[in-house]
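Single-chain item
Fold in token form
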Amino acid sequence: MGLQLPAAFKERMKSLLRESYEDFIASYGHDPHGGIRVNTLKISVDDMLELSPWQLKPIPWCGTGFYTGPGDRPGKHPYYHAGLYYIQEPSAMAPVELLGVKPGDKVLDLCAAPGGKSTQIAAKLQGEGLLVSNDLNQERTKALAKNLELYGVRNGVVLREHPERIAASFPAFFDKILVDAPCSGEGMFRKDEVMVRQWTSDSPDKYAAMQRDILKSAAGMLKPGGRIVYSTCTFSPEENEAIIAEFLMEHAHFRVEPPAASGMFAPGETGWIREHMAEPDKIPDEVLEQAKHTARLWPHLIEGEGHFVAVLQHDGSETDEPGVLRAAIGGRPAEGERLNGKGKHKPERNAGALKKGKAAKSAATDQTAAPLEAYGQFLRDHLAFTPDGFTIVFGQHVYQSPLPPGALDGLKVVRPGWYMGDAKNGRFVPAHPLATALHPREFCRVLQLSSESDEAVRYLKGETLDIDGERIRRREGVAPKGYVLVCIDGYSAGFGKWQDGMLKNEYPAGWRWTSA
């Protein structure tokens, strides 16, 4: 076996798995499984299967997930750059499937970077409701924001904040919360050798302390009757069943709900709990019974890496603090309702709200009037619909936010919403995330490129293209000159600017195709 596992890890797993240990350790001699998950914000599963250049095998626990073959390179295809799928480890698709997200839900992904599970949540929301994606790491939030933008998410907010600070701003607010907790990463050893090198025998205890605090903050942000899914990619019972048992003992209004895919996964190992909890005799029998309903994804039992998932369902009992923003999503706050926060970051000072394409007079200031006017003119000239939500201006940057101005005061905000573009010197310059979230029918000029032609790759590499004006599909009365939505096989990839037979490339440098 090529992978050198830490001796302490092997001894630990041998004591835990006993008769299953040999099968478990043999799985490290197999290659990890690759997978993609179809982005149904842009394309249906059936259409993706028809277009796919690869033979795709369904992943049993995810209706939009598929195994890819050993020689497949889905990251080196124009469809990846058009955001038609997310490349994701198959087991990692399970937690969101068990979260039960429905269109219109308000969902928090508390430890979200690099964004795979957030894009999965967004696809289930189908543009309705709210997605707040958070991560503390500054570099990782850049990848998180980029992935949400690539996959065309319109109703997302990206934060870089401590969970307890989010909880202070959003008490009892979210319908669903995903806690894909930082962990010792034992389940990813086969896939990522860096995790092996970083592991030490005290890693589980170090991460368990962090996980307790994160889960406690999540409970304070959940609406009565809401659901939390707690997941890790580790085998450590200290970070898994023990965390859930402690949580249940401290939160009487929660129960562990058997996962819908329970027949596919192994149950929680409750026999380990007493071995790894302080004062084990104080664990009630009903807590142990609840912990049996958690799920383990073992690499020797499924086609995927190691994961743990617990579905924590609130019983619906009212809390003392109702969410102060409960009436604000998708519309204005209720009459007299206080918006949260006294912080140094105050977007309401330079924010204007647009409804049906018109700036709200009370919100527009001298500072924002010109950007809002330029933005409004662009919408009227180029879009065939009015974007939902609230228009918020930060400096020259314009966003459509699912949250009203002021809702994020006091929090570190990476993206307050769908990034529409920049207003500069009375002109509005559309941003790449505006393009990637559009459907061809929604823009005034559209150019279709074929994934089988060199034009698509040349566009993705940032090259200027010679394009006959007759190829640009336009709304009636629209001239060919101007911004064009560039699509690959019918799916938006970015903007170009056409004039006199030439398409100036607007594809951002940091997003460009870099392979041969």
Q: What stands out?
A: Residues 320-364 have pLDDT under 50 and may be disordered. The first helix runs from residue 7 to 17. The radius of gyration is 24 Å.
